[in-house]
Every structure is written in C-alpha cells, then in structure tokens.
Amino acid sequence: MHHLRPPIPINRAPSWGAETGCLRCHAGIESIREPGSEMMRKILAEGRKLGDPSGCVVCHGGNPKAPSKGEAHAGPNFFPDAGSPWINEKTCGRCHEEEVRAQWQSLMMTEAGKIQGVVWSTGGATGYEHKWGNYNVRNLPADKQLGSETYKRYRDWLAALEPQVFPQEMSELPPAPEDLAVLSEHPEQVAFTYLRTECQRCHLAVRGRQTRGDYRGMGCSACHIPYSNEGLYEGGDKSIPKDESGHLLVHRIQATGEAKVKVGDVTCSGIPLETCTTCHNLGKRIGVSYQGVMESAYDSPWGAGGEGQPGLHTKHYIGMRTDLHANEGMLCQDCHTSLDVHGDGTLSGANLAQVEIECQDCHGTPEGYPWELPIGYGDEFGKEPPPEPRGVATELPAWMGKGTVYPVEDGYLLSARGNPLGNVVRRGNLVVVHTAGGKDIKLKPLKKLLADGKLSTAARVAMVSVAPHISRMECYACHTNWVPQCYGCHVKVDFSQGKSRPDWVARGHARTRPGHLADAREDGRANMIPGSVKESRAYMRWEEPVLGVNGEGRISPIAPGCQAAYTIIGEDGKAVLADHIFRTLAGTEGGGESGQLAIDMSPTTPHTTSHARGCESCHTSAKAAGYGIGGGGLTRKLDRAIVVDLMTAGGKVIPRKARPQIERIDGPVGDWSAVVDKKGRQLQTVGHHFTGSRPLNDRERTILERAGVCLACHQEIPEESAAVNLLHHVAEASGLLPATAQKHGVLLHKILLSAAWAQTGAAILFGLALPLSIWRFRRRR
To answer: Ramachandran region of residue 574, left (φ > 0), alpha (ψ -120 to 50) or beta?
Structure first.
C-alpha cells in the first residue's frame, strides 16, 4: 500500500481448548465491551475459533498458551496497543474496515494544516499549497471513498475550487537540516526542526508526549480507549501497577451511547471532552475552550497545601464561560460526524476543508428549516448554493450502521455537504439530537422560534431586520463572547551544547521496521535530532475577537495563528537570528512586491458558543474592525529596544551600563492584534489555507463603524420582513440610505434634532393652548 506497511499475520494456532492463558495473569481485567453486547459476542466467537475463549487474541494477538509473559508477548504478532494504525487493519479493521482504511488520509494523521502553517510563518515556501504530511500518502480510489453521492459531488466541487487545500497526494515532511551551517543562509529551514520536534507529536501514528493531560494511545486507541489526565489505571487487573503513569484508565472501549464505561461507581457513554483535549489544547485551543478553561501565564490560585496549580498539557489555566453545547451535555461527537474525525479517504489541508457541518444544519434560519435549506448553505466558499432544498435522509449507509442507530422518525437531517447526521432526526418541525451521553435534546429551529414569537427584539433585529447578519456572517461571529488570543509567538530554536529532541515524524516511521510494528511506546532515546524549541508569548487576551473573512467567504472571528518571531541559537551559542519575522512570497496576502509579514491571524470557530454579543461589541469596536486593541494605539512599535532605567526629563538614559528591558523585533510590529491600519493597509496575513480568507475590506469596515445605532432604529419590525427590505431598497435607490458612517451620523443627527424640535414645539403649543382653554372655560362659566 502507499504507506508501505507489510501484511501482518495473526496467529492461527489450533484450538487450545477452553482454557486461556491471558486471564491467568490478567485476572480481574475489564471486558473490552460490556458482556452481552453484540460486539463482545463477536469477539468471543472469534476468540473461540482462535483457541482463546476470552477473545484476547482477537485484538492483541500473542500466544495465550505460553507458560510465561515473555513468551506470550513475544514476536511481531503481539499488539500491546491494538488500535495502533500500523497494525489496526488486522484488529479494529476486521469490523470497521472503512474507517481504518480512511484513517491515513485524515487530518489527524497527516497534520497537513499544521505543517503548512508553520512553513508559512517562515516565509511560506509552498504558498497556499498543502504538499506535505507526516508520510507519503494519496487519495483512496473513488470506490473506496466514504460519503453519500451528494456529498462526493459537493466535495469534488470544493476540490476544484480550492485544489491547494484538497490535494490528490502529499509527501513526507522534509527532514530537519543536519548541517546546521545551512541555517545561516537558509534560516527558513528551521521550520522543519520546529515541526518535527515540537508540533508533530499529536499525530496518531505515535503516542505523543507522555505528560499530565497528554496520555493516550495510538490510532483508534487515541480516542476510543479512556486515559485520565494522570495516566493511572483504575481497573481490576492486578498485573497493572496502580501508581505508574502512562496506562489506560480502564480496559474498555468508549464510543457511542451503547458503549458503557464503568469506573468505580460512575457509568458513562460517549467519548469524554478531555479525550479530545489531549490534542486540541494548542493551536486554536478549541478543546479547552469548549470546556471553559483558558491558558494562563500564572499557576495561582494556590492549592490546598500552598502548591501551585498542577501543569495540564504543560500549561496552567483560568476558568471561563463554558460553551452552551457543553452545558447541555453535548460531547464533541454529538456535532462532529464520523467523516469530520475519521476522514472520508481523501486528503484535506485544514479543518475547514474536512469538517462537513454548519450551525444551520440543526438550527436552520428564521426563513428556513434545516431541511428547507440547500446543500452548501453556510459552506458556500463565496459561491451561491443551488436553490433546491436538501430534504432529509430516510436511511443510513451501511458503514454508519455499526454504531448506535436511532429511529428515523421524519428523517435524518443532512449536513451542509449532504451526508445524513445519524444522531439528529426531524420530528415534525422540531429537531431531536440524540447525544452519545444518553440525553435527547429537543431543539426548536429558528424558523419555529420566530413563528412562535420566541425570538427577542435583539434577535429579530439581528437575524430578520438586518438580513446580511444571516447571509454573510458565521453564526458564531455573534454567538461568541470570548476567544483565546495568544498574541506574538516567540519561538527560540537552540542548537547549542548538543541540545536535541525527539523527531516525532521519524518515531512514527520507525514502526515500519521489522520488529517494531507492535511497539506500544516510543523509545525515549531513539530518533533524536539537533535542536530544542521553546515557545513564549507577547501577551494573551480573551475579550471579543477581531473579525475577518474566512475561506467560506463569511465573516468570522479571527485569532492569532502562527504569529511567530524566530530566534535561532547556533551550535556556538551565538544568535543566527533574533526575534526575526519572516515575510511571505511577493504578492501574497496584500503584501505587494515585498510580500507580507508572515505573522497570521487565522479565521477560527472558537467553540465558546454563548448568547449573542451586543451590537456595540462589534459596531463600536476598533478591535473588531481590525485596527487593533484600543485602535492599535496602546502599544509601542517594537522597531527599537525599550530601556527602562534612570533617564533625564528629555528621555536620555543616564547609566552607561543600562540594558534593554524589551528588545526590538525585526519587523514593523506594533499591536499584534491589528490586521489593517486606518488607511486600510494590511499589516499581517489573515488565513493561509484558503485564497478567499482576508481582513474586512473598506466597505465592510464602513458598515461595521455605523456605531451604536442598530437598535435605536430597528426596534419596531413589520410582520413582513419584506417590508423592511423594501424600505431599505427605496431609501438606497433615492439616495437617502447613507453610504458612509459619517453620512449615517449626519442623518441620525438630523432625525434627533427633528424629533427634539417636534417635542419642543408640541410643548410650546401645549403651554400656549392650556391657558387659553382655561380662560375660555372660565368665560363660559
């Protein structure tokens, strides 16, 4: 096959009778699925065929009749981690052939988006192309790719539209430079050291960094086998140490609502959030954000014994508002589909390319139920979707039937790209979400809320009166109150004093060598390469994010991606580069002939969904428009060092031995959050995967800056939204609708003055009329 894995034979020894050797040592271990479940019955039946009534060899191979542990676990046919992608076609793939076959093209295995992002930060040698992954790989043949026919047609259309994010094949990431002298002339190659020793430890062909919060298995086991943050075993197997970290929590599969996991007196189903957060705690930080915690520079508050907060994923955290979906008991898998996670057998270069769902798939719009929306709604990539309603599905494809299958009721809802959502069904004009945790959520789509009069004035203004909020913006542009924003990633790669770190890509490939396929853990001394990476930040924020345009052509929150300033320390301990910001290729992202600063603000789905932000949080915010925090004028430019010491009144440093407190940065950086200046000049890149991602343009910023006027004018909404559209159309055609914030302000000023004069005039007339009326009344008496 394309990843050069040799076939792995499974022991086919003659029957050893009813006795099994595995449980002589592993007495008390939990059955991998609950007894009586269909999966456990199949495992036991297969085990009996292999001479192992307990079924252990079905997943783990080995020799259950061997008299000793060494002999039982010997040879390439023993698999400590049965989910490892290097062997799981012979284990998990027996029943889940489609998912295992598609795993090698999935983003969790290639990590192509992460690779392209880091390369972009060192000058973007490949531009928008996603040409590298963790190994050589190409798309599966068309007949092996997953998804409905509608989905496949839509995906092929996207691939033709943005081919750089839907490549046909990828090559293995280039090696880190061995001759470090090359970095003097080609410092951009430090990206390969950075990637291989730091960034690529999450790909599922390795177990990754084994520290608190990072314990996991490989391949299927990374998600489907529970590991606690402490990495301690809490099951009944006496042979597994209870005080040694790095072990699974219990010997049980976590998957759908039918797969029950029992730990002590707690029984649960589904894949816990923290399993996903094992990897999704860096980059866009969507895992920890969804849980309601955000990285902090401090280890306070102190613990009960006065100790600092324990490191989690090597970081500390502060408590934030949890995503509304998490508060409702929804796990990641309740929204994200199998194809989102496992892949469909084709390559993707970014999350936005692989993920098939949109908010409207369940919530619809005020004008349309989810089943009334066309395929591609919310996922348009700048193109108009076809007018036909998507409808619902009445049955599921065979490969989706191996998990929990829920009653079809009035039909399974479809994703924006046309696949059935197996856990989401229509019930009349309601939507029912069957969660993996066992809760059924009855959801009223927006159209029903509007019809029932359940939308607030602010919601009707935002979604009905001002229609572009729905047609041009991502839902989470408004329904996100906080976003983790880690500004200024200062990266130091130190090659001095023989420093070295693991090459995570090479550690994965080491498993293709004879005798290594069955490895459960990485050898801590193997596959080391020169260089030690340290990351730090300029500052962190969580308040309302900057807005930009994502690859789909919709206005979205944007947050720091790779805003890297590189420092390279050579073998001699001297700096090759110090706080250097690279530039992208000429003409890329508004950079003209000299290129653009290769620091990036990336469109993001923050996973911090909440009730909508107020109008003023965007329409009175210079930061939202892209001008920077406080309009970009609060922080100094770092084009010169800042000295803090004794100075004259004129600012001249007095001590001759004063040292800089803040060193200069090699690039005209002021506020890291500013993407444009007041003249509309772009200051950094905005998204590096899709060609359509960008800052807000002049017109969009002008509309945004009509500050503080939304509800003042739009509280009263006619029953027919068409009336509002007609009034706006007439006003625009007649020249009454202001085109700029200044004209808008002038018009409002006139309206307010007119209203004030009307009120004053009425008062004057009333003041004159009252005495006259009294006089007439008295005369009549």
So the answer is: beta
Q: How far is CA 391 from CA 136, 361, 375, in A?
A: 39, 11, 9
User: What stretch of H or E contains 501?
Assistant: strand 500-502
Place of tokens 């770190």: 501
Q: Which of 130, 141, 194 is nearest to 165 (CA)?
A: 130
CA distance 382 to 551: 8
- Predicted confidence at residue 150, as pLDDT, reads 95
Residue 237 CA to residue 242 CA, distance in Å, equals: 9
Q: Got the DSSP string for 97-148?
A: HHHHHHGGGSHHHH-HHHHHHHHHHTT-TTTT---EESS-EEPPPGGG--S-
Query: What 3-state class would DSSP assign to 194?
Result: helix
- DSSP conformation letters of 671-689: -TT--B-TT--B-SEE-SS
CB 235 within 8 A of CB 262: no
Residue type, 683: L
Q: How far is CA 153 from CA 370, 584, 610, 629, in A?
A: 20, 34, 34, 43
Residue 45: left (phi > 0), alpha (psi -120 to 50), or beta? alpha
pLDDT of residue 402 exceeding 90: no
User: Model pTM?
Assistant: 0.87
Distance CA 663, CA 653 (A): 16
Which pairs from 771-778 meet CB under 8 Å and 24+ separation?
A: none
Specify the 3-state DSSP secondary structure of 411. Answer: coil
The predicted-structure confidence for 203-258, as pLDDT tens digits, reads as follows: 898 988 889 999 999 999 999 999 999 999 999 999 999 999 999 999 999 999 99
The answer to whether 165 and 348 are in contact (CB under 8 A) is yes
Close Cβ partners of 259 (under 8 Å, ≥ 6 residues apart): 33, 34, 37, 39, 252, 253, 269
How confident is the model over 126-135, as pLDDT tens digits? 899 999 999 9
Under DSSP, the state recorded for 598 is S
Structure tokens at 449: 């809320």
Contact between residue 187 and residue 577 where contact means Cβ atoms under 8 Å apart: yes
Distance between CA 742 and CA 457 in Å, rounded?
Answer: 27
411 half-sphere exposure, CB direction, 13 A CA radius: 16
Amino acid sitting at position 387 = P
Long-range contacts of 351-354 (CB under 8 A, 24+ apart): 351/107, 351/113, 351/284, 351/605, 352/165, 352/550, 352/551, 352/552, 352/603, 352/689, 352/690, 353/107, 353/158, 353/162, 353/165, 353/166, 353/689, 354/106, 354/107
- Residue 424: CB partners within 8 Å, gap ≥ 6? 361, 362, 412, 413, 431, 432, 433, 434
Mention every residue, 6+ apart, whose C-beta is less than 8 A from residue 760.
none
H-state helical runs in 295-356:
324-327, 332-335, 338-342, 351-354
For 105, what's the count of Cα atoms within 13 Å in the CB-facing half-sphere?
28
The answer to whether 698 and 679 have CB atoms below 8 angstroms apart is: no
The distance from CA 334 to its chain's CA centroid, rounded to whole angstroms, is 15
How confident is the model over 9-25, as pLDDT tens digits?
A: 333 333 323 346 788 88
Distance CA 472, CA 470 (A): 6
Is residue 366 within 8 Å of 455, Cβ to Cβ?
yes
Give the Cβ contact number of residue 402 at 10 Å: 17
User: Which residues in 641-722 belong to E strands, given as ranges?
Assistant: 685-686, 694-695
- Please, are residues 685 and 589 in contact by the beta-carbon 8 Å criterion? yes
User: Which is it for strands 137-138 and 169-172: parallel, antiparallel or unpaired?
Assistant: antiparallel
